[in-house]
Amino acid sequence: MYQCLGQVTTEFTNKGEIYDSTITYEELFKVGHVVWFMIAFQTQLNLPLGLTDSIFDYNMLYPYTDNLVDSNDVSREAKKEFTKIFHERLLFGESKYDPKAHFDGKPSNTADLNLSPLLQPYADRIVKIVKKQCQKLSKSALKRKVHH
Q1: Can you tell which superkingdom this protein's organism belongs to (predicted)?
Q2: How is the chain split among helix, strand and coil, in percent rounded to 5?
């Protein structure tokens, strides 16, 4: 079990660094404990142990959401605006932003997000959330098509 946790932690941090080269090891390691709990749940459910896309996706939201909302450097107004945008993305899953332009390390056109001046300093982080959400929606849509 301990060896698996070490392997999954390494895989998670490596994959996280590939996903976002600007993210710090400390940010990735900070969310690693949740990855460990998810591996423990896999054990309890007699599932194969390993880093799944769902585990990676869920845990990669933390550095972009909680760190922004918890920061004392971000104004209350910016936090409120961010939570509104994030809520709408989760609720409706719609975005004018084209995530294909952001995949695989390609530069983002964050102007397409139409963020207010309050959120502009955090655009690179917010665009990662949109990317992750769009990836999940694309996978869900593909699964629905396959099952029908």
Answers
A1: Eukaryota
A2: 75, 0, 25
**What is the full per-residue pLDDT of the chain (148 aa) written as tens digits?**
678 788 998 999 999 888 888 888 888 888 888 898 999 999 999 999 999 988 998 888 888 788 778 888 888 888 888 888 777 776 666 555 454 544 444 555 666 667 778 777 777 777 776 665 555 544 544 454 444 4
Angle between the N-to-C axes of helices 2-19 and 53-70, in degrees from 0 to 180, rounded to the nearest 10: 70
Contact 12/38 with Cβ under 8 angstroms?
A: no
pTM of the model: 0.64
Residue that is written with structure tokens 């609720």 in the block: 91
